[in-house]
Amino acid sequence: MKAFLTGAGGQVGLELIQALVADGWSVVASDVAPRPAGVPSSVPWASLDVTNAAQVDEALGTSKPDVVFHLAAILSATGEKNPARCWDINMNGTVHVLESARKHCAGQVMFASTIAAFGPGLGNPVGNDVSMRPTTMYGVTKVAGELLGEYYWNKLKLDFRGVRFPGLINAGKPGGGSSDYSLHMYVTGLEKGAYTAFCRPDTTIPLMYMPDAIRALIELAKADRAKLTRCIYNIQGFSPTAEQIAASAARGIRIETGKDVKFGYEPDFRQAILDSWPKELDDSAARRDWGWAPRYGLDAMTRDLVPKIRAMLADGRL
Ligand SMILES: NC(=O)c1ccc[n+]([C@@H]2O[C@H](COP(=O)([O-])OP(=O)(O)OC[C@H]3O[C@@H](n4cnc5c(N)ncnc54)[C@H](O)[C@@H]3O)[C@@H](O)[C@H]2O)c1
Questions:
Q1: What pTM, to 2 d.p., does this model score?
Q2: Which of 94, 100, 141, 176 is most buried, with most CB under 10 Å away?
Q3: At the topology level of CATH, where does 2-168+209-234 sit?
Q4: Phi and psi of 238, rounded to 5°?
Q5: For atom 31 of ligand 1, which residue has the closest CA?
Q6: Separation of alpha carbons 175 and 211, rounded Å
Q7: Ligand 1 pocket by C-beta < 6 Å: which residues?
Q8: What separation in angstroms does the CA of 85 have from each of 51, 75, 91, 164?
Q9: Does domain 169-205+238-279+297-314 have CATH number 3.90.25?
């Protein structure tokens, strides 16, 4: 199977490249940013700006992949600082990818949606098929992308599929999302011995450890279309309060380094974004249709994550 990735240089893309290569896929990676270190030499890197329709058309026309993993996006917090740019990249980029995929590929487009596509007041847990009234431009572009993709599936038979990711945590740099406080608790906690989160201690959103998120993308891409009852699936990881993440991170860092970490809380503009998101997702449709099940809870993630971040800080990768 041949995969083409947009936004391949981001948190998700770099991990997905490694997992696809390990799974035997032929991979072409693209991003507006230059090729980062660590991408396997077997993976070609194309310079591609998804806002440029001609560039997208040329790239997909040349590589003719079986599956396009469309990851290029501006995330929630960065998107609120420049909503017009967020619309341009997230929405027009998706239009260009869907249209070029329809023209050039027999295959499938995988879409990375998000809990930010939901709005406030939806109860708990939030079901797969509910009213979507997001309050951020990021959320607006993701709902519109979901609907547009469903149109391409229903009317044009382009095999569009995607997951609504919780906030993702991995051993890497925080990417500008409003869930970044959780990763900072590990990275800044290890680096500086203290971190002041930009949210309240009781803030609760669904989170997921990156290995589970990557597995979800690959498992859904490989799922039998005949068993899928929809294009877009909620997937749930775990839903701790910010204070519970801090406690788990503090325990993990103490075990790893013998040092204590101090955490504080000073909510900023991102608190309102976090408060508008679900606390937990109902992922029963994904479990039923393609066998989704997360493998990591909070403490299992902490055990895996802390030594990795410590090693990355030590050798300058973070
Ligand atoms: N990280 C999360 O917590 C999270 C949660 C839910 C959904 N998602 C979705 O997953 C996808 C990947 O997210 P991520 O965490 O890797 O984000 P990221 O910010 O780490 O990476 C996004 C990548 O897109 C690239 N990009 C930006 N503008 C571009 C353009 N015009 N053309 C081509 N590439 C461009 C960036 O250079 C970057 O490498 C996104 O669609 C995001 O909305 C992420």
A1: 0.96
A2: 141
A3: Rossmann fold (3.40.50)
A4: -145, 160
A5: 49
A6: 17
A7: 6-7, 9-13, 31-33, 48-51, 71-73, 75, 89, 93, 112, 114, 165, 167-168, 175-177, 179
A8: 10, 11, 10, 22
A9: yes
Specify the ligand 1 atom closest to the Cα of 88. 31
Write the pLDDT tens digit of every residue in 151-208. 999 999 999 999 999 999 999 888 778 899 999 999 999 999 999 999 999 999 999 9
Q: How confident is the model at residue 106 (pLDDT cuts 50, 70, 90)?
A: low
Residue 149 predicted with pLDDT over 70: yes
Closest CA to 213 of 283, 249, 163: 163
CA distance 217 to 78: 24
Which residues touch 236 (CB under 8 Å, ≥6 apart)?
125, 166, 206, 208, 280, 281, 282, 283, 294
Closest approach atom of ligand 1 to CA 50: 32
d(CA 76, CA 146): 16
| Residue appearing with tokens 């869930």 | 179
Query: pLDDT per residue over 41-93, tens digit each?
Result: 999 999 999 999 999 999 999 999 999 999 999 998 889 999 999 999 999 99
**Active site (annotated) includes residue 138:** yes
Q: Which atom of ligand 1 is nearest to the CA of 167?
A: 3
> Under DSSP, is residue 314 helix (H, G, I), strand (E, B) or coil?
helix
Cα–ligand 1 centroid distance for 176 (angstroms):
9
The domain locations on the chain are 2-168+209-234, 169-205+238-279+297-314
